[in-house]
Structure formats: C-alpha cells, structure tokens
Amino acid sequence: MGFKEIKTAKKKEDIIRSAAKIVSKKGYHGATMEDIAAELLMTKGALYYYFENKDDLVYHCHDLILSSAIKTLEDYLKSNISSTDKFKKAVEVHVEFVIAEKETFNMIIKPQHTFTEKRLAPILDKRQKYANIFDEIIQQGIDNGEFKITEIKMARMMILGALNWIQQWYLPEGKKSKKEIVDIYSDYLLKLLK
Amino acid sequence: MGFKEIKTAKKKEDIIRSAAKIVSKKGYHGATMEDIAAELLMTKGALYYYFENKDDLVYHCHDLILSSAIKTLEDYLKSNISSTDKFKKAVEVHVEFVIAEKETFNMIIKPQHTFTEKRLAPILDKRQKYANIFDEIIQQGIDNGEFKITEIKMARMMILGALNWIQQWYLPEGKKSKKEIVDIYSDYLLKLLK
Amino acid sequence: MGFKEIKTAKKKEDIIRSAAKIVSKKGYHGATMEDIAAELLMTKGALYYYFENKDDLVYHCHDLILSSAIKTLEDYLKSNISSTDKFKKAVEVHVEFVIAEKETFNMIIKPQHTFTEKRLAPILDKRQKYANIFDEIIQQGIDNGEFKITEIKMARMMILGALNWIQQWYLPEGKKSKKEIVDIYSDYLLKLLK
Amino acid sequence: MGFKEIKTAKKKEDIIRSAAKIVSKKGYHGATMEDIAAELLMTKGALYYYFENKDDLVYHCHDLILSSAIKTLEDYLKSNISSTDKFKKAVEVHVEFVIAEKETFNMIIKPQHTFTEKRLAPILDKRQKYANIFDEIIQQGIDNGEFKITEIKMARMMILGALNWIQQWYLPEGKKSKKEIVDIYSDYLLKLLK
DNA sequence: TATGAATGAGCTTTCATTCAT
DNA sequence: GATGAATGAAAGCTCATTCAT
C-alpha cells in the first residue's frame, strides 16, 4: 500500500468514526450526510469521493466496529484461561462495545430496515461470525465440564439479547458503574449456562 | 358512547392495526402514510381525519399493543399460581407479542429516534409500567422463596432483553416452534432467577 | 318570501357574520372552512348547503358589510346638513366600519388575490358605488362653495386610502380613542378639501 | 468578501427579485415556491439552498425593498432643501416604490397574516424606521415654520395611507401619468400639513 | 338540512445524490 | 480531492370540496 492509499485509508476511517458518532446519536434516518460532513468540517460532496453512498458509508461504520469487536474477542478466545473466565471477558468486551459505540455496535437495529440487500449479507455474516465466538466459548465450556446446557444457540441468543439491551438503558451517570454492571451480568448469565 | 363514536373508534383501530403491520415490515421511516393508506384502500388524506400526523398514528400503534400486553399480563399476575408459573406465563405472553406484533411491540427501537417529545413520555411511561409487572412477579417469587436474587431490576432487564431479542431472529418457518422457544427460554431464564 | 326562505336567509347571515369574524382575524387564506364552521358549531359540509364555495361565502361577507356601509352613508347624504358635516359623518362611519369589521371591510386587500373573476366584478362595482358617495359629498361641497378642489377623484382616493390605513395600526387599547381619531382625521382631511 | 460570497449574494438577490415579482403578482399564498423557481429556471429544491423556507425568502423580499427605500429617502433627508421640498421628494420616492415594487413594497398587507413571529418583528421594525423618516421631515418643517400641525404621527399615517393606496388603483396605462399623480398628491397632502 | 367521512390536488420541505469547476 | 450548487424524487401535511346517509 503506497503512501496515498494509506492516507486515503486513514481519511476513510476518520469519516467512518465521525459517521458512527452521528449515526449513534441520531439514528440512521436522523443522520444526514450533511450532519456527517459537518462533523468533519467537510462538505457533503466530499463524502462521495470516499464512499459510494450513505448505505455504503454506514455499512462501513458497522463493519469497522464489528470487525474490531471480533478481533478483540478472538484474542481472548485463544488465551489459556477457563471457559468461565473467557465468558466473563466476552461479556466485558461486549458491554464495552455496546456502551461505547452505541448505535454502531447496535446489533439491535433491524438491518433490513436500514441496509440495501447488497450490504445486508456481509453484515449478517459478520454478526454471525461474532455470535460464533460466543458459541465456541460455550461449547468449550461444555466440553470441559464448566457449563452444562444443551441448547447452545438459544442460550447464546438469550445472552446476546440481554447484553445488547443494556444499550437501551445505560447512562454514564447512572447508579451502577460499568464495572458493576459487567459483574452482575457475568454472574447472572453464568447461572444460565451452568 | 354513541353508535357513531363506536364506529369511529373501530375505524381508528383498523387504521392502527394496518399501520402497525406496515411499520412492522418497513420500520418507522420506511413506512409512508401513503403505504399505510394503501393497505386500507384509503387515501393519505383520510388518515389525517383520524390522526393528527404520522407521529400520532404510530404512537397509537405502540400504545395499543403495549396496553394490550399490559392487560394480558396483569390478568395472569392476579391468578393464584406459583411465581414460577407466573413467570413462565409472562415469558409466553411476551414472546407471543414479540413475534406477532413485531415492530409495534418493539421495545427495542430507540423511541428517541422516532417519536417527538410529546409522544415520548407516555411511551416510556407505559414501557415502565410493563416492566414493573415483571419486577412484581420476581419480587413475589423472592418473597415466597421461589427465587433468590438480589438485583431484581438488573435481572428483569436481562430477561426482557433476551426476550425482545427473539424478534431479531425468529422466523415462523424456523427450526424451533414457538412453543419450543417459549419452553427453552422459560427454562433457562428461570435458572437466572433461582 | 315564505317562512323557510326567511329562516334560510337568517342562517345565511349568521354564517356570513361568523365567517367575516374569522376572516377578519386570520385573513382569507388563514381562515379555513373548518374554522368558520367551528365558530358556528356546525360542520364544514353544512356551509356548502348555503354557499357554493369559500369564494362565494367570503364574497358575501364583503358584500354584506359593504352594502351596509353604503346604506348607512346614503342616509346621511340625504340629510339636510352642510357638506362639511356630511364629510365628517362619512369619516366617522367609515372609521367605524374599518375598525369594527376589520378584514371584511378591508378595502385594502387586493381582491385579485382573493376572489375569482366571477366575484371580482361585483365587488369592484360595489366598492365603486361606495366611493361614489364620497365623490358626491365632495362635489356637493364644491358646488356650494364649502370645498374648493379640482381633482375630486384623486382627493377621494387619498382620503379613503388614509382612512383604510387606520386598520393597520388601530388598537382598541391604544392611546387615542376612536372618537379622537375620527376628530383628528376629519379635521386634517378637511384641510385637504378646502 | 471573497468572490464566492459575492456570487452567492448576487444569486440571492436574483432570487429575491424574482420572488418579489411573483409575490407581487400573485400574493404570498398565490405564489408557490415552484412558481418562483420556474421564473428563475431553477428547481424548487435549489431555492432551499439559499433560503431556509418560503417565509425566509419572502421576508428577504420585503427587507430588500424596504431597505432600499429607506436608503433612498435618507439621502434626501440630508440634503439642504426646504422641508416642503423634502416632503415632495419623499412623496415622489414613495410613489415610485409603491408602483414599481408593488406587493413587495406593500406596506399594506397585514404582515401578521403572512409572516411567522420570527420574521414579523424585524419587518415591523423596518417599517417603523421608514415611517420615522416621514416624521422627521414633518418635525423639521414644523420647527422651521413651514408646517403647522400638532399631530405629527396621525398626519404621517394619513399620508402614508393615502400614498400606499395608490397601489390599489394605479395602472401604467391610466389617465394620469406618474408625474401628474405625484404632483397632485404632493400638492394636496401638503395642504394637510400647513 | 346537516354530518361524518373521504378525496385529491397542491403545497412546503427534506435530502441523497450528482457534477462542473 | 474537494466544493458549491443544483436536481429530483419523495415525503408529510392541508384543505376546499363532495357525497352518501
């Protein structure tokens, strides 16, 4: 990758991050290309140099965050700790993303209502990939006797649902700190697996 | 209530149901007044005879379903069964609504991105009222020794999060039947409370 | 005229008066048929039993007031007083109408922007008829030596312009009472004629 | 001001002038954004690049003309001529604007029926500023003995009313030329002040 | 006569997208 | 690479008008 490409890639990521911020705050439809450009002190038109269209841009927002989450999780998966600890870590990571990235790590939004077909498949794929990590952790736990459930996928969906939901009510200035939340969730959700 | 009022009320509910259907399918922004009217073989203009504006109409969609869910749940709450059974029933009811009403019973969407302030408060109120029912069931279970957790609200939020999430993946033609899903969810989520 | 016709005529006048009130307050475009009907505790539809359309209704508003003003003025014209006194009376009457009927006696609005061609001619005719009364008073005053100007029509237009303009600034709670206004206007405008 | 700003400002003025023309012909409600755009061979949407909304655009129409009238008048006010001559000049200028700019210099329309509150205040302010110029001329005339009246504001309102009214009846192809009208009006209205 | 309901044309406004410069 | 300007399609909404009952 030459110098130019690197610069372009960086600019692209800048745009993605800004866009993610705005989309988080206002939602897909509430965030206009104008808003996103304004945040970057650019003009609308310039965005189209880097991204095909709004769909494409917002897709990359999701993709960036999701990829990053997957990478983070996969690193923990490799480490030599108990499945219970892996699960706890996974909860911690997920909560972190859910809170920090809000809308963009919003596994909650119906992508069908937002993305065109072209973008839908890759997003669903990546979501699946992310979910698989949880499945693997659970499977591993079952294999080594730490967990004992039969419906892995259902359990995983409950867990992810519970975690994603945090986004709906979490406030930085709320009663419980992020750490407390993570602990309670880890604790309770583990009961579900054991 | 005179004959006319009844007829009007019925028509209003018709409209609400149709609107709910469209909004479920296409999301708030994707569903146009035109779409909703077309479904009813009416013209856009006619909708405005019954509802102030789109916001008002969609608000009533949510209100109708949510009120209905609350009523259904409250009936079970009064009945003379164990807290565990009440919980199972609650899960069943919730899943039923989540699946049948889809978007309209979508406790998931950020209402901030959809409703104007005027409509936001009542919706949040009613959601809270709904959540309270779950809290009560849990509290009752704790009081009579069936459940033994300390963080009622956190547990309730995990549970509702898990249940709402079903909407994201449920397909009528999926592998698991609705009944199976309800059973597994009840089963697993109860572990969380015990 | 039979009983029915009388009743209908009365109702029509009721509607006209209400319409005039609303149109005065909100202007032609601001006043909706709904508004007018509401004031009368009727429904929109009913208005169409009495008047062809909005244009027709508002036309009759203007016509009613204008006719009434003409009649009032003509009575004074016949009376056996000096032209100066006639003029003073005319000013008084005009101010009264301008203030009380506001928009409806609004000789100011461009009828071209409000009425369709069909209604335009009769309105302009009646306005002309009204203006003629002022011309006659002035002519009479010239004939008997009280006034001494040559451009009767121009003078009349100045005078009516000045008087109509009162509508733009008059406030019931203003510094000057209606009577004071009439006196000052009579006084100053007479200088114009002498 | 850079080149771009100048170009934009020019375009804005172009739009304002076109809008003024249309609004003059059809009135505020009769003139659609489509009409205005068509006159400029633009599309509706483009207008919104330059102006917030219709209200904003029409406000600027009024503002432009009124500002221009104020400027023109103020120049005469400074010159070293008699108050009588100043008054004559003021009448001439006013008539010129009334005739040339029609609706846009329409001090006649009730701005309350047209503008939203936000725009109302500045318009009323500017109208007042314009009126003040007439008051000053009159006051000056009184001070130097050319005029002898006590009710300055009332006189000014009569005069402006009379002048504005010209708009209602003036036709370019009418019997009296613009110059004749100005002369007669100046002549007669001066009698009012002396 | 009067009403409730519906229509439909027309309006303002928004915004993703395009493109000459 | 970036901008200013423009487009055009679509949306929400209003309201005079109609008409069966």
Automatic annotation (TrEMBL), chains A, B, C, D:
Residues 32-51 bind DNA. Keywords: DNA-binding, Repressor. Residues 9-69 form the HTH tetR-type domain. Pfam families: TetR_C_24 (PF17932), TetR_N (PF00440). This is TetR/AcrR family transcriptional regulator. It comes from Alkalihalobacterium chitinilyticum.
